[in-house]
Amino acid sequence: MHRCVSSRQHGIAMIEALVALLVLSLGVLGLARLQVSALTESRNSNARAVAVQMANDLAERMQSNAIVRQTNPTPNPYETLWGAPAAAGADCLATACNGTQLAAFDLRAWKLNVATLLPSGDAQVFRSNTDTNQFGVLVRWTELEGKNKALATDAEDALFTRADAVTDAAGAVGTGMAGFTCPVNFTCHLVYIRP
């Protein structure tokens, strides 16, 4: 005997199929969001690792420049502000250079590497005001958004801001040195080195 299926049963089956499709779609969107967040956090971690590596590279360059390291002049030729590096006067790979020329050559090559390795990368190098043998290296790059800051509550946004902020030993925002702060819309990493 052939049984007829009512149109009401077809309607219920259709609704069940649509609900199942909706649940599946929400699951896939959730997984995609997790993947994007994981990718962005991975990029942020990589950028911080590059910043630490660049600070170590500068410390090694300063350490190998015996003339500047031993005399420790004020201002130190390795100190620099944001912006493109000045053209080096001499190519220290091709000719012998004095300490100041080597510092200019090193600083130019180093800042070009920072700009190449980090999105909108730049750096400041400054002498500590409490220890003349210590230098702060403040590396900045374009803020990588993936933490859903646009959707964050005020409390979550404050946590994101605090996590990305450069703070001094007292917990105050900044490097502890006047004039050396992280610009808005950039992420910064501060490392103190002693060449």
Tell me what the structure shows.
Strand 1 (122-127) and strand 2 form a beta hairpin. The mean pLDDT is 81. The protein starts with 6 loop residues before the first helix and ends with a strand. The chain is 48% helix and 11% strand. The protein has one domain. Helix 1 (7-64) runs antiparallel to helix 3 (99-117). The protein is built from 4 helices and 3 strands. The longest helix has 58 residues, at 7-64. It is elongated, with a radius of gyration of 27 Å. The chain is mainly α.
Top keywords for this entry?
3 strands, mainly alpha
Describe how the helices and strands are arranged.
Blueprint: H1 7-64, H2 66-71, H3 99-117, E1 122-127, E2 135-142, H4 154-164, E3 186-193
Antiparallel strand pairs: 1-2, 2-3
Helix pairs in contact: 1-3
**Gyration radius, in Å:** 27 Å
Largest sheet: 3 strands, antiparallel
The total of helices stands at 4
What is the typical, i.e. mean, pLDDT?
81
Class by alpha and beta content:
mainly alpha
Tally the beta strands.
3
- Alpha-carbon distance between the termini? 93 Å
Beta-strand level of the residues, as a percent range?
A: 5-15%
Unreliable spans are: none
Q: What are the secondary-structure elements, in order, as H or E?
A: HHHEEHE
Strands ordered across the widest β-sheet: 1-2-3
Helix content: 40-55%
Compact description:
This protein is mostly helical and 195 residues long.
